[in-house]
Design brief:
By secondary structure, the protein is α/β, with parallel strands linked by helices. The chain contains eleven helices and 13 strands.
């Protein structure tokens, strides 16, 4: 039984990792006015922010069409695979899974779809586990069952440096925006039950928010899955370096994987956003 993993570009895993581990990528869409780009393929995060500065508008994001999913499924099956497992961004964040499921109806149960109930490397952590299970020779049904058990144990939280993207994207009210900007709030956004909540509201410098992220993982330290602990960021070099140094006091350095947020995730959270993501046992 040959099983192929498929994941969308919101997983925020390096393309090198996906290629080396035989994971197929389906990029989601990023648009500026009439110009449409494939996330990670037609535009990268640096270019995204350059366009925002030039055009003075935020991009819009969209899922791929049913036809695009069918083309991807056909390509994979033509390569000799028996099953596909698509690990998808949370259904509460995107309608992507709906198109994937509609496209899968014509494939006689050979396309299995997993709602990750997460985003960014909250998806990526599940992909890494699935890669191992596929290499062990597990069937698609076995991998899907393991993923469904795993998803509730993924922890994802991000510190947002600027409220501008949340506000302009409609995810932050005008009152909250001006109040938060005045107090220099750097909110901690946490993924809970497949959706997002504002978990903490650190005030002042970004380092205060970073320390909150470290406090959160310390609360789970005795129950951590140490295979991979993620630091994922959107052009937040200084914050990344700080977290990397401090995180080594909590978990082994070999457990830490640093990744860049792609364009879809960055479109909604903005430059400087950074998260710590991990799995609990």
């Amino acid at each position: 039984m040959k099983v192929k993993l498929l994941v969308d570009s919101t997983c925020d895993l390096p393309l090198e990792y996906l290629n080396e581990n035989n994971v197929e990528l389906i990029p989601l869409l990023v648009t500026f006015n009439e110009d449409e780009y494939l996330d990670l393929v037609g535009i990268n995060t640096n270019e995204l922010y350059q366009k925002v500065d030039e055009l003075k508008i935020l991009p819009k994001t969209a899922s791929r069409s049913i036809g695009s999913f069918m083309e991807t499924y056909d390509k994979i099956f033509a390569e000799g695979y028996d099953q596909i497992i698509y690990i998808c961004i949370s259904s509460k964040f995107s309608g992507t899974i709906q198109n994937a499921r509609l496209a899968a109806e014509d494939y006689n149960g050979k396309v299995l779809i997993h709602d990750s109930a997460n985003l960014s490397t909250g998806i990526g952590l599940q992909v890494i586990k699935a890669v191992n299970w596929v290499k062990e020779g597990k069937s698609g049904e076995e991998v899907l069952a393991l993923l469904e058990d795993l998803a509730p144990r993924v922890r994802a939280q991000f510190a947002v440096e600027s409220l501008d993207y949340l506000y302009k994207g409609g995810r932050c009210s005008q009152t909250s925006y001006f109040f938060g900007k005045g107090l220099k709030i750097k909110p901690i956004i946490k993924v809970v039950d497949g959706g997002m909540i504002v978990y903490k509201k650190p005030i002042g410098k970004m380092v205060n928010a970073l320390n909150k992220l470290l406090e959160i993982i310390k609360e789970d330290v005795e129950n951590l899955d140490l295979e991979t602990v993620m630091i994922t960021h959107s052009l937040a070099e200084d914050s990344k370096n700080y977290l990397y140094e401090k995180l080594q006091e909590i978990v082994p350095e070999k457990s830490i994987m640093i990744t860049d947020a792609g364009c879809v995730i960055s479109s909604h959270c903005g430059k400087g956003t950074i998260g710590i993501l991990y799995i609990v046992k």
